[in-house]
Design a protein that fits this description.
alpha/beta, Hypothetical Protein Yjia, Chain: A,domain 2, 2 domains, six-stranded antiparallel sheet
Length: about 350
């Protein structure tokens, strides 16, 4: 009896807001188009899975979907990752996925994911096909030197996608120069809206290298240094007030990322029947896009996720709630103090 072909896994990593979910959706659609069974495992830092909602909205025919939130796949959620992958490997021949895309949170250190093949429950059943790192050219170029986690995410990649190059060509040139000088051995591909040029390297054919000598002893940023807050909205929000809140420098700490789903006060439902909008704040840009109904016909839950360091949780919760514009005769919920909790 022939042994089963190992399950291929592609890790997609990169900083917060780099455009990983856009890349993941492109990858999933490409796999589905070939008739291959593909699954996705999404890790997000927050109490809800906004990226999972965005993947679901694309409606690819997937062999499996798993959302892991409120933790990191490389540490607190590692057991959940192993259990999910084992469950997919345990499915009968011809029914389980042939490939899995694992999208990490932007705060994850891929160093701790390169040994998944050695897990006893996965030994001989899993093949690490590649590690695709997505980096936005809109981020400050000095982050490659000043952000150790970003440097590690790039250094361990089998392929780097430099995203959003169409939005700032000069910044793209600067980033490409820095990345090629630092990592000459790693293929680098400029992308537009998550699309790589024709003939670009196949992310699934990566050659993931072993950790450089001495790397494990290098002190990196702690995942627990970041905090997240999730707030569910009950009413439509004011679009102009949202823009003012998210684009203004915070009074305390650093706002790394904001994202979510909402309805806007005064905006009617679209022709597709949905009144939901997805918003993403990254690299100092606020992007808003229409969000279709989910694959089961229901509307996504309206909520905001804020990620940062040193932020005042009570302030942000009040500020997000203040964006609501309740219909006449209704009131907002009363807020009680609920400071950010450190994730471990």
């Amino acid at each position: 009896m022939n042994e089963r072909t190992p399950l291929d896994i592609l890790i997609v990593t990169g900083p917060l807001g780099a455009g990983k979910t856009t890349v993941v959706n492109r990858l999933l659609k490409a796999e589905v188009a070939t008739g291959r069974r593909v699954a996705v495992l999404i890790n997000e830092f927050g109490a809800i899975s906004v990226d999972g909602t965005l993947v679901d909205a694309e409606r690819p025919e997937l062999a499996g979907v798993a959302n892991l939130v409120n933790g990191c796949v490389c540490c607190s959620l590692r057991d959940d990752v192993v259990a999910t992958l084992k469950a997919w490997c345990d499915q009968p021949e011809g029914q389980g996925p042939e490939r899995v895309v694992l999208e990490t949170t932007g705060l994850a250190d891929p160093t701790d994911l390169l040994d998944l093949e050695l897990e006893p429950a996965l030994a001989g059943r899993l093949r690490l096909a590649g590690l695709l790192t997505v980096i936005s050219c809109l981020a400050p170029v000095d982050h490659l030197q000043t952000k150790p986690l970003l440097h590690r995410q790039a250094a361990l990649a089998s392929l780097i996608h430099l995203s959003k190059v169409d939005l700032d060509p000069s910044a793209a040139v600067a980033w490409e120069s820095e990345l090629r000088a630092a990592f000459r051995q790693i293929p680098l591909v400029p992308t537009r809206q998550g699309v790589a040029p024709e003939g670009s390297p196949d992310p699934w054919q990566g050659d993931v290298r072993a950790l450089p000598e001495g790397w494990a002893a290098t002190a990196g940023p702690s995942f627990t240094a970041a905090r997240s807050l999730t707030l569910h909205w009950d009413h439509p929000v004011d679009p102009e007030a949202m823009e003012a809140l998210l684009l203004a420098p915070p009074a305390a700490g650093e706002l790394l990322r904001a994202k979510g789903v909402c309805t806007f006060a005064g905006w009617a439902a679209r022709n597709d029947g949905s009144d939901r909008w997805a918003f993403q704040l990254a690299d100092g840009r606020l992007e808003i896009s229409p969000l279709p109904l989910m694959s089961n016909g229901s509307a996504s839950v309206c909520a905001a996720v804020v990620i940062g360091t040193g932020l005042d949780g009570d302030h942000w919760k009040r500020a997000l709630r203040a964006l609501e514009r309740p219909p006449e005769g209704q009131r907002r919920k009363m807020l009680l103090p609920d400071p950010f909790k450190i994730k471990s």
